[in-house]
Design brief:
The protein has helices at residues 12-24, 33-46, 66-71, 73-86, 94-102, 109-135, 142-155, 163-169; strands spanning 8-10, 62-64. The protein starts with 7 loop residues before the first strand and ends with a helix. By secondary structure, the chain is mostly helical. Helix content is 61%, strand content 4%. The chain has eight helices and two strands; from the N terminus they run βααβαααααα. A two-stranded antiparallel ribbon has the order 1-2. It is globular.
């Protein structure tokens, strides 16, 4: 997928959020921008949260270099497919969701819209993650309680793909 084989940049307020989360969690040795990427996709999907892309160019982007994007391409495609398959609000028809997940043409206008939707899910999840890690943390020791609460809340939410949907997709 073209979007995920090149430099990825969090822009505007989302770039600031990534930097604050990485810093709060111990910097690049413990938490990297690519880690935030993966966690955010899951949170956006499981919390049904979407966010518009911030195009503010006055804030330096938080980047994931192309080598990392290529190295983790299989995992990124997995999450892309998961979003396309399970997001019934974005696409109601199960067969069409399957097409979006597995039979995409990176050059098509439809695929570009799907990549934007995926990015909106990612950014929505980033905002959820930021709220748990930064906004709810008054003291340094609170961060562990917030992460525990965050994991418990995530464990209680699931993304449903019904058996009927799977039959239509296949």
């Amino acid at each position: 997928m073209a979007l995920f084989n090149q430099l990825y940049q969090f822009r505007g307020k989302h770039a600031e959020m990534v930097r604050k989360i990485v810093n709060k969690l111990g910097g690049n040795s413990v938490c990297r921008n690519i880690d935030i990427f993966f966690i955010s996709v899951v949170l956006g999907l499981s919390n049904n949260k979407r966010s518009d892309i911030d195009t503010n160019t006055s804030i330096e982007p938080a980047k994931i270099d192309p080598e990392q994007m290529v190295r983790f391409n299989d995992q990124i495609e997995y999450f892309y497919r998961l979003v396309m398959l399970s997001d019934k609000k974005y696409c109601l028809d199960a067969k069409e969701r399957g097409d979006k997940a597995f039979r995409y043409n990176p050059e098509s206008d439809e695929c570009k819209k799907d990549e934007i939707h995926f990015t909106r899910v990612l950014l929505g999840g980033l905002e959820v993650f930021y709220e748990y890690i930064i906004d709810k943390t008054l003291y340094e020791e609170d961060i562990f309680n917030n992460i525990k609460e965050f994991i418990e809340n995530y464990a209680s939410t699931t993304t449903d793909i019904s058996e009927d949907d799977l039959r239509q997709i296949i």
